[in-house]
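Case study: GNAT family N-acetyltransferase.
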Amino acid sequence: MTEPDRPDTPRQPPPPPQHWVADVLAADGGVVRLRPITPDDAEALQRFHAGLSDRTRYLRYFGPYPRMTPKDLYRTTHVDYRDRVGLVVELGESIIAVGRYELLSDRAGPRAAEVAFVVADGHQGRGLGSILLEHLAGAAAENDIATFVAEVLAENNAMVTVFRDAGYQVQRSRDGSVLHLEFAIDPTEALLSVRDSRERASEARSVGNLLSPGSIAVIGATPSAGRVGGAVLANLLSGVFQGPVYPVNPNRGSVRGVRAYATVRDIPDEVDLAVVAVPATEIQSVLDDCMAKGVKGLVVLTAGFSETGPAGFAAERDLVAAVRGHGMRVVGPSALGIANTDPAVSLNATLASVLPGRGRVGFFCQSGPLGAAILGEAAARKLGLSTFVSAGNRADVSGNDLLQYWDTDPDTDVVLLYLETFGNPRKFSRIARRVARSKPIVAVSSGRNATRTVPVSALERSVERDLFAQAGIVQVDTISELFDCAMLLAYQPLPSGPRLAVIGNSAALGWLAVDAARGEGLAVRAPTDLRPQATPADFLTAVAAAMDSPDIDAVIVIFAPPVPVSVSAYAEAIRTGAQTGTKPVLTTFVADHGMPNLLTVRGAGGTVERGSIPSYPDPERAARALARVRRYADWRTRPASLIVRPADVDTERARNLVGEWMSRAPEGQWLGDLEAVDLLACYGIRVVEFREVRDEDGAEQAAAELGYPVAAKATGELWRNRPDLTGVRLDLWRPSAVRRAYTDLAEVSGNEVVHIQRMATKGVGCVLRVQDDPSFGSVISFGLSGTIIDLLGDRVYRALPLTEAESVALIDAPRAAPLLDGQTGVPGKTIGEPVDKQALSQLAQRISALCDDLPEIRELSVEPILASPRGAEILYARARIGPEPSRFDIGPRRLA
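Here is what the predicted structure looks like once written out:
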């Protein structure tokens, strides 16, 4: 390449932005790696170009272009990552797609750039063009580019479709055979909806590929069922997997009567899934073989990774990077395995000795050892599963992926989760809210994992409880409760209300059920006592009457014979009575646990079908399960509302302010009091006006400017928002009082800076806070202020961003919320007029939008807020900014 061939570009371009590197799922569920182009890509790019068909080159370059010229190659690979940006998509060591944009410097108005991309013929139709467009738009937005322009041949239908279906508002014009397309790249609701829809489809397809493989290799297979490789091979063979199974063992010609291969490379046919059961020290060579073979997915049963400490964590990270770089996904390491009970697949690639039968419940579990016990319990209770995944360390495939899969899976009606960590909590909340609208999710969270030694705090439990409730998740505390709810959800309809009938032949057990139900918030009268001598006909009549009554929403039936009797007639009576209506029926049937055969409805192949009646060992457990399911049913009836985006906000100014402050303190800092006020004002959040003063004269002048009466406040950490008001002087009406207050406060605090603030309307003190939590993501909390409230922990929490309905419910959720309505909890006794709760909910909406738009706000406290019938006035606000946390749920699609 001669020097004149080089454009006016720096010889050494700046380093490529590493945060643009992303593993992304293609439309078919395979993984590709996207990264910024570099000068080192010149040879690979030329090979990529040479491999394009004549037709593809014609559509991209509008004519024959068999080889890139040195000048074009140089210009394409030497970019500044601002005005000229190039991205490549790789699979293994090969470039399979290229995209770029270049600033249109001669264009007036907002910055605009021309965008173009091309995909290798063998990878067209995988959605790579859409992926490139998303990531190019993300890079352009970082560089203050507002508009993309594209020139496309009118006959290039595939490219036109990429732009049309992306969710942008595209303006089109035509000049002969060329279409001119132009569109703003600001994220719109339509754009985000398209992104989320594509993300859901690709993640679901990715998991589907793992759960429905056409062929499986077991690497580390042995004849011994007591070893990991032997156990999983035995389960695959005994489960009659509907495809070939290839044992891999370099020391054996066959394993369990099936021909074995020395390495996965030696298998003559394609391998869709490899189950890895070798020591951690042998993992790298196994990975090399799988990547060379083109295996599509891995289940790594091997332990010895992140659960062992930093070195294991690094090895696990390298494993995931290598696997994804070659288009694969991985379940594990330290996984129990995966299962799919679909007869067309019959996959049991787990270490569990017992697998439940076919059903319509999907189960995700992080813990490997616990997963085996869970499967055994499900089988004992006759709870059928559709699919099961134990992800172990959850290094790649996570609960979020499974939620996406089950959301689209027609064979799954109920989702069960056993969680130790949340991974991407913000994304989890978003997906769960959507899935729970049509399929119930029951979750138990252990709150700990192998890397955590600190017990879970009551605060963390409160946050988790509220976030689960916000997303419509049925939260339980134990595995037993998980199955109690699952049995009801899987086989009985949802209750339409809280009204419960208790029917039984034991008055004592009936009252236990009534007391438990009332304690859980259900509406129940005295039990219908059929007496110990009740006949099957008595049960049938009572159950049928309850099913027919418009005043009853659910039924608990207790059958506890005082003497040994034949129970089949009683079971038949209960089942027949239950079939006369569409209300949920639960039983305590001779203290049976699970699904009694006599109360089971069987389908084709002997599967347990809807209409089967679950039994609980005691009536209290039945009542608790029903109450939890009732709360879920109530949540589901509430109309879904939209995320609130206030119109009168100045996001650009807020971002500029935060950017300026971060440039001065890249590691983050607490903002000054006036800086916090300035930031909040960008989103229409007003703090009661105040002045910072440093002497008596300044205090008197500030009071005159603000207007009497005023308050004086000491500054410093020890003096802010103290309940004893030691650092505050209120209702100052005269200059002399202001001067005296300044002197007192400066002396007692040891700080010459004092705030003089206009007096606010008296009201109920409230607190709104936002904090970026590593376990739960950005969380907003609300509560009333006061020492007693703090001691009781009466705060409620919600994940950001808030919907309109959630912001309203947030204000009503604390136990002390009746005080906002002027109520004391004592009948007939009030403490004043109701406050303007709408002002509080609108304030929560604005704070939600601010912290969602600017993730650099790591903490924000608005306290106290005085809520009154006239509105809500903020007396003080504090904010801490810091480097933006990794938020893979916003911006272009990527795997976390």
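For the exam, be able to explain this: The radius of gyration is 32 Å.
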